[in-house]
Design brief:
The chain is built from four helices and five strands. A five-stranded mixed beta sheet has the order 1-2-5-3-4.
Length: 129
């Protein structure tokens, strides 16, 4: 592998800029270790999911800059960025990642609140009298 592979991943309002190079499995997020940045085991699993799918757990070092959104959105944006980098590196990994849906941008967003309502769909209580 020559140099650094640069990709981008998005989910909800989160954006992950991913820089991947050959190494020994370190994932650094905003200058901190990913286990420190994502405290729950489920979010840590989401970050590693792309590597586990192709069986490349400790072959690459990842440095990521995450911006916007919340914890789950950032973790899934990071997963997408890593998956795209793995595809760029080895085209044979693409079908396995595509089958798990890691290359598709999940476009689901929070629905906006409407005027005259409590939330996006919930209404204020109706009083007949």
């Amino acid at each position: 592998m020559e140099g650094v592979i640069n990709t981008i991943g998005r989910r909800k309002c989160a954006i992950a800029r991913v820089y991947m190079k050959s190494g020994n499995g370190n994932i650094t997020v905003n200058g901190r270790d990913y286990k420190e940045y994502f405290p729950t085991a489920s979010l840590q699993y989401v970050c590693r999911q792309a590597f586990e799918t192709v069986g490349a757990e400790e072959k690459f070092d990842v440095k990521a800059n995450l911006d916007g959104g919340g914890m789950s959105g950032q973790a899934e944006a990071l997963r997408m960025g890593i998956a795209r980098a793995l595809c760029e590196l080895n085209a044979e990994d693409r079908p396995a990642l595509k089958e798990k849906g890691m290359l598709r941008r999940d476009s689901r967003m929070v629905e906006r609140k409407k005027p005259g309502q409590k939330k996006a769909r919930k209404r204020f209580q109706f009083s007949k009298r």
